[in-house]
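Translate sequence into structure tokens.
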Amino acid sequence: MKRRALGLAALVTLVTVFAACEEGTPVAPSGTILRVSAYPTRIPKTGSSTVTINAMRSNGNPVNPGTEIRLSSNIGVVTQVVHTDSAGVATAQLRGDGRVGTATVTAFSGASEPVTLEIAVGQLAASMSFQVTPSSVPETGGELELLALVRDDQSQPLADATVNFRSEIGTLDSGGRFIVTNSAGEARDDLTVTAADLQNIGDNAFDVVAEVGGSGGGIISRTFQVGIQRPPRAAFTFQVVGLTVTFNDTSTGGPTGWTWDFGDQTPVSTQRNPVHSYSAPGRYVVTLTVRNSTGTDTASNIVQINQ
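Result follows.
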């Protein structure tokens, strides 16, 4: 009998403790309305947002202080349990966990209807601009600064976006690894090209590319063509009609200046494609000199003028 009495006392004590716990952490009564908001509603993939929950009874009064509110989210890490203050307000934090997408945060308490809100986590890029400085390099090589500016769908700088730079030639400081944009939406890298690198390029330019993940799962890609500052290579063709000759410059290397000596003691011409009339038939040695910021070059041809 005594042992039975002790068992009954233990049961009463357990029920008392459980009731005390229930009183210490009340939940929302039936008819409670939860309103949930967040600031900001867009965060980087490792950023955070403050979630605010207002819990009001059906009569418009706040729920009891200390009422337990539970939360969950499909993306990121959210505070799982919070408690209201005297105004029926509780706050929680959602932190990005590196995943990109839309976090659906759900709040509920007791018999209240669960409510949800959405927070954009690690937004994807909507646009990107790309520039390379300087825009050209000499044949001896040089260093180039690469800058990509990434923006979201509201044209605001997008932080924590991953940008990949690629180049036909040269060596990137990043080694080709992804670069994360800063708070200004900027990703930077440096490219070094040598004379040996440029010798492998037959054209007068090479491509540098920047790529970033875009909305809809696509890739936003921008290409910048870097010029190669080569000395010009002089060349020309001509057409003879009677005593008149039309000269056509076919030089390569981007010449910016031309000097024509027509071989007949007349003044030189600085036009790119001049037309010259000779005073008499004969064989004339015509010389073209071209130049640009890197150097000069000369080419000559014999022009035969027949009566």
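Note: Helices lie at 2-24, 195-199.
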